[in-house]
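A quick aside before the break. I want you to see a complete sequence-to-structure record at least once, exactly as it would be stored in a machine-readable document. Don't worry about memorizing anything.
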Amino acid sequence: MSLLRWSRALLAALVLAGCKSNPPSTSPQDSGVAAAPAADKAPTPGKEPGRHGATGVGSEVTPPPRGAPGHALSYLKPVDPERCEWVRQPLPAGEPVSLFTFNAACDQAMVSWRPDGTEGLVFSWPAGEGEGPRAWRVELVGKAGKPLELKGLPGSKGAGGQDRPYIEEIGFDEQGHPVAIVADAYVTRTPKKGAGGQEVVTFEGKDYPLPEGGEGSPGLALAYRLEGAGWKRIEAKGSHFESDLAEGTRALEATKTLLPIAKSSPSVRMRGEDAPEGDAKRLDAAFPGQDESGQWMVLATPGGRLFFRGTLGGEFLYPSVPLAWEQEGKLVELEGLMAKRDDVLDLQLREGLLLIANYGDPRSAQIWDTRAKQPLLSVEAANAPAFWPRPGSP
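That is the input. The structure line, written in C-alpha cells, reads:
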C-alpha cells in the first residue's frame, strides 16, 4: 500500500539543504534552461547502457508534444540568497518569462493562482528570528505585484516559535478569495477537560474538542478568508500536529476548497502504485543494492509504465532514484536525469508530459515526453516547480 505522508524531520532537512544551495548566475548563458528538441523532429532514443545493470534499447518513437495552449512550467529561481524570481517557462520550448521578483528566499516560498488565471499569490515563511511571514498579490498579465497585508492573522508577526501559531499556507479558493491556513500546536501547553471528560483546546473564549486517539501534539487548525481589506475566520477545529501520522490542518474543510499550491517542499502525496511482485524482482536484479526499507513503485503514463524506488523517510515513503521506463520488455533509465541517490523527488503528470521535481541539493526540475521517452526541458536551481494551471481547471 502506498504511503501518503512526509516526515517533519525530512522536510526540515530539505529546507536546510535548500538554504545552503548556491544561487545560479542570472545571465542567459547560465540560466539553467536547456533547449528542447525541435517539435518537428523526433529525438534519437538513448542507446547507452543504464547504470546498475539496466540496458537501454533503441526503438522508434513519436515526436514530442507540440505544446498546446496552456502548457508551461512554473518555478521559483534564486536571484541571490534573499531574493527570488517567479518564472513561467513555455513548453515544449520558448524563452522563460519573469513574472515577479520578491525579497525572500525561494526555498521558503509557495505560489498559487486564481481560478481565472489572471492573478497569483506568493507566500513566504519566515526564515528565522526577527523575520515574519510575507505575501504578495501578482498581476500575471501585467507582471506586477504588491504586498498582501497579513495583519489580523494569528502568526502574522515573528517567526512563530514553540507554542505560537504560524501561517502554514495561503492560496486561492474556488471563488478566487485568498485563504490562509493557520496551525497552533500545543507543545508545552496542556488541553483542558471539557464536557464528558473530552479534551478541548480554547481559542477566543470557545472550546474546540480534540479528535480521540490522534497522534502527536494537540492543537488548533484555523482558516481565514480575505474579505474586503480584512481577514475573517471561517473555520476552527481541534487537531493533532508534530507527528508524521497527525492530521494537522488537513482536518479543515477549507483545505479541500483550495486550488493547487506549488510549494518549495515536496508534495505529501505518494504517486503511483506498488510494483507487481514480478516487476519488483526484475528491478531488484537490474538495480541491486537498494535499501530494504524501501520498495518499488510504478506510475502509469500515456507512454507506458515508469518504475521508481520508494525510499523511506521517517514513517513514510518518498519517490527517489532509480527511475526507469519499460521499453520492449527492457528497463531503460531516464536519459539525463539530474537526481542522485536519496534525493527527494515529486512526480507530476500532465497529458503526455512528466515533471520530475528534485528537492535534493542542488534542486532541479526536468520534463520528459512520456511517449518519446526523451527529455524536453531541464532547469537547475528550480524551487516549487509545477505545471502552470489552465484557467478553470481544478
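Two observations worth writing down. Confidence is low (pLDDT under 50) at residues 1-69. Residues 1-107+266-394 form one domain. We'll return to this after the break.
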